[in-house]
Amino acid sequence: MSKIQKTKKILIVGSGIAGITLFRLLKDKGFKNIKIIEKNKKLRSEGCAICLPFNAVDQIDQIRLKDKLLKLSHQVDKIEYAKHNGKNLTTASLLQKPLNSQPFLSLLREDLLKLLADNYQEEVSYNLFIKKINFDLTSKKSKVTFSNKKKEEFDLIIGADGINSSVRKLAFKEKDLLDLEVTNWRFISKTKQDNLHPKYFVGKDEGFMIYPMSNKKTYCYAQISDKGNKYKNSDFIAN
């Protein structure tokens, strides 16, 4: 990247996994004029756990965090797909090329975010969000009005604020996202099962996944087709 590019003023909206990773990558590349904002009052991760395939681990290796990541995570060597009754459909080995170029890991989302944000989270402007964006076609800059009523001008605005991105709505004034009427639940189960591997149970219009995170914890994900969103805000109860 040229020196001219590195002088550009950049705004990153959202300090989740994507936003904070991009922030530190740009910092490492020599970009100085970067602002990152977060609407929440502190660093916070949505969801329970996350699975990192070899290509994700490879990127973390490139920012020199792999050794720390390995200490926080659990490695698996195969994934199984099964019918709802447990009958095996197929098994994929993670020890064959190209999947074995890096370990296949699982860990808490909160732990991954803290790892990525280490030494950078103090640079995040918390409890702050965008109220308005004005595009200036002449200067090719964007004038931003923040929730604290302050205004700033940026060369580039990056929306890393999730599926319901406020940046996307302000920039493109698009309609609401299509509701596929699918409800899911995520939770951590305390288990003591040796040699447990990820397993996906596939039904007609539902699915259930177990994903070990250690010999004591398993990440679980359940999904159903939920016409009318009948169960959208309900708790998951296992029989």
Tell me what you see in this structure.
With 239 residues, the chain is an alpha+beta fold. The chain is built from five helices and 15 strands. Strands 6-5-13-14-15-12 form a six-stranded mixed sheet, with no helix packed on it. It has a three-stranded parallel sheet with strand order 2-1-11, with helices on both faces. It is globular, with a radius of gyration of 21 Å. It starts with 9 loop residues before the first strand and ends in a 14-residue tail after the last strand.
Describe the structure using short key phrases.
alpha+beta; three-stranded parallel β-sheet; D-Amino Acid Oxidase, Chain A, domain 2; 15 strands; FAD/NAD(P)-binding domain
CATH architecture of the largest domain: 2-Layer Sandwich
* Widest β-sheet, arrangement of strands: 6-5-13-14-15-12
The coarse overall form would be globular
User: Structural class per helix/strand content?
Assistant: alpha+beta
SS elements, strand count: 15
Q: How many domains make up the 3D coordinates?
A: 2
Compressed to H and E, one letter per element, the order equals EHEEHHEEEEHEEEEHEEEE
How much of the sequence lies in strands comes to 25-35%
Radius of gyration: 21 Å
What fraction, in percent, of the residue positions are helical?
10-25%
CATH class of the largest domain: Alpha Beta
**Average pLDDT, all residues:** 88
- Cα-to-Cα separation, first versus last residue: 56 Å
Put simply, the count of helices is 5
CATH topology of the largest domain: D-Amino Acid Oxidase, Chain A, domain 2
Uncertain residue segments: none
The largest pleated sheet is described as: 6 strands, mixed
